[in-house]
Write a structure and sequence with these properties.
It is a single chain. This protein has about 550 residues and is α/β, with parallel strands linked by helices. It has 17 helices and 16 strands. It has helices spanning about 15-20, 45-50, 60-70, 90-100, 110-125, 135-145, 155-170, 180-185, 200-205, 250-260, 290-300, 330-335, 355-365, 375-390, 410-415, 435-445, 480-540, and strands at about 5, 25-30, 30-35, 55, 75-80, 105, 125-130, 170-175, 195, 240-245, 265-270, 395-400, 405-410, 450-455, 460-470, 475-480. A five-stranded antiparallel beta sheet has the order 13-12-16-15-14. The protein has a four-stranded parallel beta sheet with strand order 6-5-8-9, with helices on both faces. Strands 7-11-10 form a three-stranded parallel beta sheet. Helix 5 packs across helix 7 (about 155-170). The N and C termini lie far apart (about 135 Å).
């Protein structure tokens, strides 16, 4: 498992990780970052720049617990940069032994014989590259393979110290230091069982806090050389020239010149991926201090220079396979999609995290990046889409500032109000359409919905006004409802006339009914009289 993990779903497309990574070992897919583990140097500098804390270092405390439960004694190889931490060497030793370790020794003891091997190689070969930093070694092997033979034929101080501890105490070895890359080195090592960061080491102390974190614990100087974690610290221990190159950007630039034979160094070339060497590691103590302040604190110590020797080991990280670089045709096709059809349009702004537009285009071809990572491209795309919407909408869009001066007047506004944009833009709105509603929206920072306005005898509109840009602007969307209003008036007239006709019919029907009723009444009376007379006649005959 890789030493650095990305927490799913936390990435917010800021590309800070890509900007901070000189080898661009991050892939962006569907807006989420993931590590390219083969490319990643495990230096951990991306952790410090991620504002979402979407990355973390793998924790291996469970491995340590299993080691401590075994029958074999377990020793700690403690990185000398622990001198800047809140614990004295005695406190480290006491607390670690309380949790089950058999002893603690500074990794510096492994650095002494390693340094002697550096000197010997430099004298024999003219110059040599150090192997203490696994991230720097991996950088050389993968990105500057022609210089791989210049790496000193000796393993890192961590591995040499671990081999010495194994031989002397027949123990298993746990390394504790500031560097996540040491975890990857430990996995590939046969002498280091596991590597922890200082943060993991602190957890072994439980919840106990140091009594005085301001005190620099000088006990370290009597247990091992403390100059080794300092960039250029080798100078005090060797009689050959030492050139210290720390920080990936400076290191890559130097290795490029070295591979191109434009520089001819002599002696020991101390290479470190982190700025400030181990004092600037991703999990180093006192990161709130500048590198210069950290160096000054360590250099105050008077060191005991009597150190023993241990067995030397020669171990290299595998070269691995790098992604093939895409051809120019494929890169140019991506640049064309980004609208960069001319070198002058390659702004190389770095917003995407890559140094140049061509580097980013190559990453797109390799499937490591997305077109949408380009800020100018997305801005142009958004502006084009916004302009397309403004041009296509049948509604008039009018935008004014706090001074009620027109800032936007789209084509529909030109047609609706019969005024070209050139005559309206940057001029007061009052000279064209009523501005009182815009003023109310800007003053109160509230929206106005579906208000009907009669602009003139021939134009009636419905307007929605909304504040934008925090109330600095107000946008009005006007819908022409003149025809709707005319249809409404016509419909109202038809309804009125229909009601009148209906009432007229009702009145006529009532009149007819009354006349019929009158006639029926008269006829009924006459019939009654005739029937009565008839009845009397009939009765008289009887």
């Amino acid at each position: 498992m890789h030493p650095i993990k990305v927490k799913p779903g936390l990435c917010k497309n800021c590309y800070a990780c890509i900007r901070s990574c000189e080898v661009k070992a991050t892939s962006i897919k569907q807006g989420q970052a993931s590590l390219l583990e083969e490319e990643c140097l495990s230096c951990g500098q991306c952790l410090a720049v991620c504002p979402q804390h979407a990355r973390e270092i793998r924790e291996d405390l469970s491995v340590v617990s299993n080691l401590l439960r075994g029958a074999t004694p377990v020793w700690v190889s403690l990185a000398p940069s622990a001198v800047l931490g809140p614990w004295s060497f005695a406190e480290w030793e006491q607390r670690l032994m309380q949790v089950g370790f058999k002893g603690v020794s500074l990794t510096s003891w492994g650095a002494v014989p390693t340094t002697r091997a550096y000197v010997e190689t430099a004298n024999n070969e003219g110059y040599t590259l150090t192997t203490a930093c696994p991230a720097a070694v991996k950088l050389v092997c993968r990105h500057f393979p022609r210089l791989a033979h210049r790496l000193a034929p000796v393993a890192s101080p961590m591995q040499n110290h671990a081999a010495w501890l194994r031989q002397k105490y027949r123990a298993k070895v746990v390394f504790i230091g500031p560097c996540p890359a040491k975890k990857e080195e430990a996995v590939k090592s046969s002498v280091v069982d596991v590597a922890l960061t200082f943060a993991e080491g602190d957890k072994l102390f439980g919840h106990r806090q140091p009594e005085n974190t301001a005190i620099l614990h000088r006990t370290f100087s009597s247990h091992g050389l403390t100059h080794f974690p300092i960039a250029g610290g080798l100078e005090t221990q060797v009689d050959v020239s030492v050139l210290s190159i720390d920080g990936l950007s400076e290191l890559m630039a130097f290795l490029t010149r070295l591979q191109n034979d434009t520089v001819r160094p002599m002696g020991i070339i101390e290479i470190s991926a982190c700025r400030g060497s181990c004092l600037g590691g991703a999990n180093a103590y006192r990161r709130e201090l500048t590198i210069a302040e950290r160096r000054a604190l360590v250099r105050e110590l008077k060191e005991d220079n009597s150190h023993g020797s241990g067995p030397l080991r020669s171990v290299y990280l595998p070269l691995g396979k790098r992604l093939a670089l895409p051809n120019d045709e494929a890169i140019n096709e991506v640049l064309k999609q980004l609208g960069k059809t001319d070198p002058t349009l390659e702004y190389n702004c770095g917003a995407c995290g890559y140094h140049t537009c061509r580097e980013k285009a190559a990453a797109v071809v390799q499937g490591r990046a997305e077109l949408e990572m380009c800020l100018p491209y997305m801005r142009t795309k958004a502006e084009s889409l916004a302009n397309l919407i403004l041009r296509s909408t049948p509604n008039a869009v009018v935008v004014v500032d706090r001074d009620l001066k027109v800032q936007e007047w789209n084509e529909a506004a030109e047609r609706m109000f019969k005024l070209p944009a050139l005559q309206v833009l940057k001029r007061p709105l009052t000279s064209t359409i009523p501005s009182v509603d815009f003023a109310i929206v800007l003053d109160n920072n509230t929206s106005l919905s579906s208000k009907k306005l009669e602009i003139n005898r021939d134009l009636i509109v419905s307007v929605n006004i909304t504040p934008v840009k925090g109330g600095e602007l107000a946008m009005g969307v006007f819908t022409d409802i003149t025809q709707m209003e005319e249809q409404a008036k016509a419909l109202a007239k038809v309804r009125h006339e229909t009601l009148e006709k209906a009432q007229e019919v009702i009145n006529k029907q009532m009149s007819v009914a009354q006349e019929i009723a009158s006639l029926l009444g008269e006829t009924t009376a006459e019939s009654k009289m005739l029937l009565v007379k008839l009845m009397k006649v009939v009765q008289g005959e009887m």
